[in-house]
Amino acid sequence: MPRTLHTYTVVPSLPERLAPLKELAYNLRWSWHYPTVRLFQTIDPALWEQCDHNPAKLLGLVAQSRLEALVKDKAFLKEFDAVVTDFKGYMSGETWWQKTYAQDFDSDFRIAYFSAEFGLTECLPIYSGGLGVLAGDHLKAASDLGLPLIGVGFLYQKGYFRQSLNADGWQVEMYPSNDFYSLPITPVLTNEGKPFTIQVKFPGRWVSVQVWQVAVGRITLYLMDTNLPQNSEADRFIAGNLYGGDNETRIQQEIVLGIGGIHALAGMGIRPAVCHMNEGHSAFLALERVRRLVVEEGLSFPVATQASAAGNVFTTHTPVPAGFDLFPVELVYKYFNEFASELGIRFDELMDRGRQTSGDPNAKFNMAVLAFRHARSINGVSKLHGEVSRRMAQSAYPDFPLDEVPVGSVTNGIHIPSMISPEFSELLAKYIGDPTPDNLADPEYWAKVDTIPDAELWKARETRRQILVDWARNYLVQRLERRNASEWEVESAREILDPNVLTIGFARRFATYKRGDLLLRDPERLLRILNNSERPVQILYAGKSHPRDDGGKQLIQRIVHFARNEAVRKRIVFLEDYDIGMARYLVAGVDVWLNNPRRPQEASGTSGMKVVPNGGLNFSILDGWWAEGYDPSVGWEIGRGEEYEDTGYQDHVEAQDIYETLEKDIAPLFYNRDSNGIPQGWLAKVRASMMKLAPVYNTHRMVQEYTTNFYVPSAKREDELNDDAYAKSKELILWKQRIRENWSRVRVLSVAAEAEKLLAGQEARVQATVELGTILKPNEVSVQLFTGPVDASRNLISYTAYPMTLDKAAEAPDGTEGVYTFVGNLPSANSGQQGYTVRVLPYHPDAVIPQEIPLIVWE
Fold this sequence. Notes:
Elements lengths: L19 H6 L8 H10 L1 H6 L4 H7 L2 H8 L2 H19 L3 H5 L10 E4 L15 H16 L3 E6 L7 E4 L5 E4 L11 E2 L9 E6 L2 E12 L2 E7 L7 H4 L10 H21 L6 E5 L5 H14 L3 H9 L2 E4 L10 E2 L1 H15 L3 H6 L12 E2 H7 L3 E4 L2 H11 L14 E2 L6 H4 L2 H10 L11 H5 L6 H29 L4 H7 L8 E6 L15 H8 L6 E6 L7 H14 L8 E4 L4 H10 L2 E4 L21 E5 L4 H4 L5 E4 L8 H25 L8 H14 L5 H44 L4 E7 L10 E8 L9 E9 L10 E4 L1 E2 L12 E8 L7 E9 L14 E2 L1
Parallel strand pairs: 1-2, 1-9, 2-8, 9-10, 10-13, 13-14, 15-16, 15-18, 16-17, 18-19, 19-20
Antiparallel strand pairs: 3-4, 5-7, 6-7, 7-8, 11-12, 21-22, 22-26, 23-24, 23-27, 25-26, 27-28
């Protein structure tokens, strides 16, 4: 091998008439725009498949003679011109953001969305599963809505693994390297035209990071890359594998993502007003934002934390504490001891920013805790997950009701244009209008699904099922031929599945709590269901297990072994190497999407949402999004929302429920046809599912919700706190210090009401005497009447907190200094036994309570 190797890049020579093809290829808007995809397919259909649906690679490999021929092809040029015109219109058209919020912000206002993975398209393999696909969909919807948002992530040399199965059905991982120069990405360049790089400080050295960019419609995604010649071999591997390596590699990746990401944005002249941490992997950005204010503005650590946290948003996707990244003290010391001094604090104080319990020397550094402490807006990803997350965080707010622990929820969604099939997109366009960013989250638009004729709706469903069966056969044959399988195996693959049979899909990460083999619990009963002579069923499985999760691999192996049974080999198929491309076929073609995790361990789940706009139905445990989306008209439930301590018993009960529902509800409804061969009852459920679920469980609704409830308020709050040389941030720090020092003096001395029985609609005056001490003033507290219905044990079933007002006319008892009277009224809208008490919380118009200061005094 030569000792010196010089590199150069070959780019396609496009005829001038076709020059816009390059911009189309390098903007991932094509990944959710079928006319653009069809255009690239037309250039060379076989090459398009060989290139894994990568138009940038296609343009680099297509024969020059083919390009010259296309210049003379009038039909192609007509299609080409229409796509180019549409793209220009998309990029320059007026958007929801412009109409709603743009006038409130400067032109340089930016929201930065940080994620360890982004699932945008199958040809850019920098994602592993649902978290990444959600992040990719977030960017796509932000583009459609015109948000001034940028993404920050990692460009992994090998990304996540490619999956194959050995002869025994055991998962085998392969890590092919990404060729960045054949991907639809480009390097960020300096003014001198050289690759833009930054330096990230590591113990005893600096690590160079090159920044790449991906155009995602109107959005730019910046990706960090450490695989550079000037870095050591070990440091080059930081950008090696997604979620690969040991604990030290993980902390290095998260330093590059969080701290390096902020460095990179600053180097490009971008100073985001809001930073959204998608899970805790990027939480070090919070410390870097603080460090910059300490070093550049001369602020103290508390003031800098106050000023920066206002603009931080944290979304957690993890329903169990074990899911968070934890780092031991010695590892954090190695990488952050010097960093702590730059923050102006001791290392132990820095450790406390990530410890569940401050001052605990044995506690590991928790990235979710760090994000929690440095964000003023925190949310789970479904209503149920928000409740689960509040339970996990409640120890930090022991005196507050669960509902007031400061974790909200924004239920996830899917980017419908990325996952809806051409057949259903065209069906919607024909009967109710094109699905657009303006109507995808509009219930009135989806209500018109009722006007689509039954025959057309059913034809679209049958077409997609046929396409799925044809694709699955071809996919399996190709994989078998590549591994030199026997002729019998190849011919058997050509016979799998039946395009006329009720088809169930189960595709997701194979973790043990998702129970991928639950259907196999009673093999004999499953065989009867699959091979029923009148109402047969077939199942497609797909999904990867984490390389170190042998339990997940065993689930896959068990399914594969069962599928080899001659009695079911045409009815059960496991498809290897699940990715976004495969998902499009599955969610568009299956009739029912099955999901059976152990409640409440599914934070949200989005795969089931993807079948909805394609006319598929959900059959799921009441967990994640389905716990709030389900009603009997739109699909089927497994169980009734119970949670079990005995998991073996739970598996038995819920497996039986699946069998019963399949046999007695789902299969009969599917096969019950009218004289025209149309299942009227089935289509009624399809319509209800599309009308009720599609406008809610999509990323256009989700991103609008984030914008309205988090991004805009966070930006405005940060601006107010940091105006006038951070005056309000400094004032808040002093206020919190005064509150903490004097809170022990706060007491509710007495509470008196004018009546014990009220007529409905009648109000009763409540008077509370509150002692605040000699320092705190009445305008620094919120005195509240806490009231609601009670059960037989005199516990509040639900509650409402009503503000009480200072009674300025009342004198303090015996003229005691620091004692005040507050008054309020008991409500009487609901009859029955009611309860009430009085409580006192700190109050400041610029503080987020209880997130910033979790103090409370109850009567």
